[in-house]
Amino acid sequence: MPLKATQAFTVKGNTMKKEFSVTLLAALLLAGTSAGYAGAPDPERIQEARQQTRAFAEDLKSTLMKGMKAEGPKAAIRLCNEEAPVIAMSHSTDGWDIGRTSLKIRNPENAPDAWEKQVLLDFASRHQAGESMDTMEASIQDGDTFRYMKAIPVGGPCVICHGETLAEPVQEELARLYPDDKATGFRQGDLRGAFTLTYTSD
Description:
Elements: E1 2-10, E2 17-25, H1 43-71, H2 73-82, H3 84-91, E3 96-101, H4 114-128, E4 137-142, E5 145-153, H5 159-162, H6 168-177, E6 191-200
Antiparallel strand pairs: 1-2, 3-6, 4-5, 5-6
Helix pairs in contact: 1-2, 1-3, 2-6
C-alpha cells in the first residue's frame, strides 16, 4: 500500500530548508543502499558518500583518541564539543555537507530531521534483526539533492562517555557542556546514531 509523506529537512551547516512531498512503496522504505523516495541514487554517488564518511570518521576518531590518551575522557568530551564541528566543516566541501545525528542526541544541533529519524528507526530495527552495522546504510535522491546515512555502532571507548555508568568527572563535564544530554545508557555494540550526508548538484 503506498505510503504518502511530506518531509521537511534542513541541510546541516546551512540555513536552507527544502520541503518536498513524496510517495513511496512500503516495501521499498529505506531498504538497502538504493532505497529512495524519488528514485534510486547513482551508485557512483553512493560510493563517493562512503569515501566521504570514512574520511570524516577517521579524522574524528583520531582527534578524540589523541585527546583521550593525552588528557583523559574530559579532554575527549571537550574536543568533541569544540573540534567535531570544525572537522565536519572541513569535510563539507565540493557540494557535500556532512554531520552526525542520533535518536539520543548530545548536541541539540545534531537533532535528526524527519527523514533522518525514519532512517534511524529503520537502522534500529535492522540491528535488532541481526544485520551488521558495518554495512548498514540508506540513501535517497530527490532532484538535485542526494542524501546518505551510515550507521554508527558503539565501540569500546565510546562507553566511557556514552555508557550506562559514567565516572563522576565525566558526568560533571557533560553537565557543563551538554546540560540537556540524552546520549548515555549505551552498551558496546548498540546503535549510537549515524553519519548523515547531503550532496547538492550545482
